[in-house]
Design brief:
- Keywords: 4Fe-4S, ATP-binding, DNA damage, DNA repair, DNA-binding, Helicase, Hydrolase, Iron, Iron-sulfur, Isomerase, Metal-binding, Nucleotide-binding, Nucleus.
- It catalyses: ATP + H2O = ADP + phosphate + H(+).
- One of its GO terms (cellular component) is nucleus.
- It contains 37 helices and 30 strands.
- The chain is of the alpha/beta class and about 1050 residues long.
- Strand 3 and strand 4 form a beta hairpin.
- Helix 16 runs antiparallel to helix 18 and helix 34 runs antiparallel to helix 35.
Length: about 1050
């Protein structure tokens, strides 16, 4: 259950300056409390067992001052659990900082963003909560608002995000930083008015940060009341209990040096940490291409011209042209030195140990002593270039700034102690047209870091209390501890909050024709493999409703398969691609990042198209689709993994990384003897498994979601491969020896989709949990009221839902009938491959809800059919006979009608009582359907049966009959497409969407027009009471427009 929160602070104008105060009319709401390891943890709702275990692990790590690796699947409330557990532990040490009690430091102007902290020291540790992006941090702040905890907090952002100065906000990078610092110095003429208002605002609003504020809130405060949002945040972060920031504020040394809080005993939390290894390594590495170096040389020449021009025009001596000339000469010499490096093999390139970079630069007279002076010249050049109007008009960033960052990375800590973790590599690349014309080769100088633990080791040296890494897809965990070279004694791989009937996970090693699936280099280029995979995807596209995600190991294989499917086919039959498009409209992940938003929009548009059963997104593991996107509910009902996404072994960076790890494992250092070191081969396999886990995590995004995970590669059948899949998935994985068996169970899984409800997973070991007295507190009155309101409108809607089929997904499935044939065995007979089963029988399915009569033991099931159908000399068989139901609480009835005047009567039960409203609420569905019918009756019997059904309506409640009659009128007035939309909107209302105004407004638009106004009036009876006033507003507006 999720509760809507109200902002608990307000800005009050009391003359000048403006004041920030709490809203006294809002009280903290009561929440369930759980005692975990002696700590009382307030949680916004009744916690699942896995959530309690997660919070217990967090508190355990904090109490023991040790590090933790915690994996909890998406949808298990990981972020909220992390916040509540951490803040509960922090609160147990002493009260949170509030108001002026913590504001003893004075505002120190522009120097507050660098240098050591001058703020007061606190005996309590600071919590630093980081995530990958600001959009993710925005969601974290929203979760904090839902909790009862109100620590003093702030979200750090860059000047680019927070600056509101009219001119400075238009700049970027170092130029923006320098311009900001220049205007913030104490000068009488040119000064920043926003900066000058910070001190007064902070004194007059000591409570700012006591309630959750996001970056947008700070910007709004600045625009409305004047103070600079950037320096408000910088001043706040000295005294907060919890600090929110992106990863790079901790990983990047320059950002890290600007943070002014006590590092000793502080708590560092890295949320969404599944890519933290590569982020740490990449942040410490660089690639310098010939093209980039040429651009830097051009910029240095431009700086010389600008400096000379300024001296001649205004006697401006701020930039020395001689310095810029020296810079240009050094860059030219570096370019020549790189071109002279001997490369014997284009595939292997030129490789040297990390310290070789100092030898290379020493030839240019660049050492630790001269590098600092060179960095100063580069900083002057970047300011000069950004101020130049002509350069700014081009819209290009300053490339010289990259050279400055490279020198800072190389000569940090005087270059001691970290160079052994690097490799110098020079490789040739494809030359562009200009380089070819000049007879030059294109090369890249790289300095690659292969030890992502460098940053983490610096945290340990600063005396950090605990480092917590958490994500939904950390598995396999071993590589994290080994790569970071840190000990993580607290580890957790949590189960999901979903129940077993919400997930289908299977290894499908063979295709429809019995050929094995194996995407390795040996088999991937064979036409047989591509054809077999394509035919399998045709089957999955036919079976899976709504959204289907198909992940390939690489862009190469994706392009090759799609090209093959478009061309592979006989003259008298459709191609594989055409058959896929028959069931689902395709979208292909683009290589260019700029085109990706358009691809997502295209996918969502095609997903809403009712002419097919959904859309299919062809994507790549480690690509843009696999990272950070939420394909919840119908957007992603199944994910297909077509192979193991191993990195290219011959890639220089991969090859050198493996060699580095093997060397480390053979001769471990003193500090690493207690940690099992990772070999190159182990790292290589674990990286592929983590990419699989990341792709698989796109489906089943919350506790009410359900979906299928299909592994189409025989290597996934190996226990060693399955052991590296996320732990919550492993118990559900089944290996199918025949493709037909997998199709059979997958069809049954989606047939039962609408009746699933999540269940609490039971955990075997909960000895560490103390859920005594405090965990059994009564539900607060306000929560009970909300629950009562929810129940009341659910009852109202049940009048409509009992008269209408509200499918769990809006698109149709194929082969869904749960019929019991007398001559069917429990084992599925051979299924025709996709190229033999691509037909669409024209049938309408009317599905009746389960009978509410517990006394009825046997019922009749009326089904239409074609008897045996022939397709290319192949008997099409019924795929859904003898399908056992997961729950036998009640028998299911299904009523089917045909466009032909024939029907099929199957004795399912003996009782012939059929609910009247069931017949009236039947919604036509065009479903592919085959059966082995052995008896036929005339359509007149069907009509007679319908009359009998309607005749029993007197036994129903008046409300249900009225709802049925209303739906009949709705179907008469709406087109099939509009009625389908109406069903979807009703489903959203019934599922208690947070923003219920959207479906209500859509329904009002559907019923707009003079001929439908009576439907608009009548529908008001089925609107929840608390939203009726909103609906009446829509109603009045629609009447006026009509």
């Amino acid at each position: 259950m999720f509760y809507k929160t109200t902002t608990q602070f307000k800005l009050v104008k009391k003359g000048k300056p403006y004041h920030f105060s709490r809203n006294p009319n809002i009280k903290k709401r009561k929440m369930p409390t759980y005692k975990l390891r002696g700590i009382d943890v307030d949680f916004p709702f009744e916690a699942y067992d896995c959530q309690l275990v997660y919070m217990e692990k967090v508190i355990d790590a904090l109490q023991k001052r040790c590090n933790a690796l915690l994996e909890s699947p998406t949808g298990t409330g990981k972020t909220l659990c992390l916040l509540c557990a951490t803040l509960a532990w922090r609160k147990s040490l002493g009260g949170f900082s509030t108001g002026s009690s913590q504001r003893k430091s004075e505002f120190h102007g522009s120097q507050s963003d660098v240098g050591p902290s001058e703020s007061q020291s606190s005996n309590h540790p600071t919590i630093v909560y980081t995530s990958r992006t600001h959009s993710q941090l925005r969601q974290v702040v929203q979760e904090l608002r839902r909790s009862n905890y109100r620590p003093k907090m702030v979200v750090l952002g860059s000047r680019e995000q927070l600056c509101i100065h009219e001119d400075v906000s238009l700049l970027r990078g170092k130029a923006q930083t320098n311009a900001c610092r220049f205007l913030c110095r104490k000068r009488q003429k040119r000064s920043c008015t926003h900066f000058s208002r910070v001190a007064d605002y902070m004194k007059s609003n000591p409570h700012i940060g006591d309630e959750p504020v996001d970056i947008e809130d700070l910007v709004n405060i600045g625009r409305k009341y004047g103070p600079c949002p950037y320096y408000v945040a910088r001043e706040l972060h000295k005294t907060v209990d919890i600090l929110f920031a992106p990863y790079n504020y901790l990983i990047d040394r320059e950002y890290r040096g600007s943070l002014n809080f006590e590092w000793h005993n502080s708590i560092l939390i890295f949320d969404e940490a599944h890519n933290l290894e590569s982020i740490c390594a990449d942040a410490a590495s660089f690639d310098l291409s010939s093209g980039l170096l040429t651009a830097c040389i051009s910029e240095a020449k431009h700086c010389v011209d600008l400096a000379v021009g300024r001296r001649e025009e205004s006697n401006d001596k701020s930039g020395n042209p001689d310095n810029f000339a020296i810079l240009r000469a050094l860059l030219l010499k570096l370019q020549k030195r790189i071109d002279e490096v001997p490369i014997e093999s284009k595939e292997l390139g030129f490789t040297k140990p990390g310290p070789y970079i100092y030898e290379l630069l020493a030839d240019l007279n660049i050492t630790h002593e001269t590098a600092s002076k060179l960095i100063e010249i580069i900083e002057d050049a970047t300011v000069l270039l950004e101020e130049d109007k002509k350069h700014d008009a081009k819209g290009n960033g300053c490339r010289l700034e990259i050279i400055g960052n490279i020198l800072k990375s190389i000569y940090r800590d005087k270059g001691n102690g970290h160079a052994d973790s690097y490799r110098v590599h020079v490789q040739e690349t494809e030359a562009n047209a200009t380089e070819v014309f000049k007879g030059k080769s294109s090369r890249i100088l790289s300095w690659w870091c292969f030890n992502p633990g460098i940053a983490m080791q610096e945290f340990s040296e600063r005396g950090v209390g605990s480092i917590i890494l958490t994500s939904g897809t950390l598995s396999p965990l071993d590589s994290f501890a080994q790569e970071f070279k840190l000990d993580f004694p607290i580890q957790l791989e949590n189960p999901h909050v979903i129940s077993s009937n919400q997930i289908w996970a299977g290894v499908v090693p063979l295709g429809p024709s019995g050929r094995p699936f194996n995407s390795s280099f040996r088999f991937r280029d064979s036409p047989e493999y591509k054809q077999e995979l394509g035919n399998a995807i045709v089957n999955f596209a036919r079976i899976v409703p709504d959204g289907l995600l198909v992940f390939f190991p690489s862009y190469y294989l994706l392009d090759q398969c799609i090209s093959c499917w478009k061309n592979m086919g006989n003259t008298n039959s459709s191609t594989i691609w055409e058959r896929i498009c028959k069931f689902k409209k395709p979208v292909i992940e683009p290589r260019q990042s700029s085109l990706f938003p358009m691809a997502i929009e295209d996918y969502m548009t095609k997903l809403k198209d009712t002419s097919t059963s959904g859309a299919v997104f062809f994507a790549v593991c480690r690509g843009k689709v696999s990272e950070g996107l939420d394909f919840a509910d119908h957007a992603g009902r199944a994910v297909v993994i077509t192979g193991m996404p191993f990195a290219t072994r011959t890639d220089p960076k991969v090859r050198l990384k493996r060699e580095y790890l093997d060397l480390q494992a053979q001769s471990p250092r003193e500090g690493c003897k207690m940690i099992k070191l990772l070999s190159g081969e182990e790292w290589y396999n674990q990286q592929a498994s983590r990419a699989v886990n990341q792709s698989v995590g796109r489906v089943i995004r919350h506790r009410h979601d359900y979906g299928a995970i299909i592994f189409c590669d025989e290597r996934f059948a190996q226990s060693s491969r399955q052991s590296q899949i996320s732990v919550w998935i492993q118990p559900h994985i089944k290996c199918y020896s025949k493709f037909g068996d997998a199709v059979f169970t997958l069809t049954r899984f989606f047939r039962d989709g609408g009746s699933r409800t999540p269940a609490k997973p039971e955990l075997a070991d909960q000895k560490t949990l103390d859920l005594s007295p405090s965990s059994t507190k009564p539900v607060p009155d306000e929560i009970k009221t909300a629950q009562a309101l929810d129940e009341s409108y659910t009852e109202k809607l049940s009048v409509l839902s009992t008269s209408m089929d509200l499918p769990h997904s809006k698109h149709k499935l194929s082969s869904l009938l749960d019929v019991k044939s007398s001559n069917n065995s429990s084992h599925l007979r051979d299924i025709p491959p996709a190229n033999l089963s691509c037909f669409t029988p024209c049938m309408d399915l009317k599905k009746l809800k389960r009978s509410s009569d517990p006394m009825s033991k046997e019922k009749k099931l009326l089904i239409t059919g074609r008897g045996k159908m022939q397709y290319q000399n192949h008997d099409v068989i019924g795929l859904t006979g003898h399908l056992p139901s997961d729950k036998q609480q009640s028998k299911e009835q299904q009523l089917c009608s045909m466009k032909k005047h024939k029907a099929l009567l199957i004795e399912h039960d003996k009782s012939s009582n059929v609910n009247a409203s069931d017949a009236q609420r039947s919604v036509p569905r065009d479903l592919p359907f085959t059966d082995d019918g052995d008896a036929e009756v005339d359509a007149k019997f069907l009509n007679h049966k319908k009359n009998d059904v309607r005749g029993s309506a007197e036994q129903l409640g008046a409300e249900e009959t009225r709802g049925s009659a209303f739906l009949i009128q709705v179907k008469e007035k709406l087109s099939p497409a509009e009625y389908k939309d109406f069903v979807g909107y009703m489903k959203e209302i019934k599922s208690k969407v947070i923003n219920i105004g959207n479906p209500l407004q859509c329904i009002v638009e559907l019923f707009s027009g003079s001929e439908r106004l009576h439907l608009l009036e009548r529908f008001k009876d089925y609107v929840p009471a608390r939203y009726r006033s909103l609906y009446e507003q829509y109603l009045e507006t629609s009447k006026r427009n009509a």
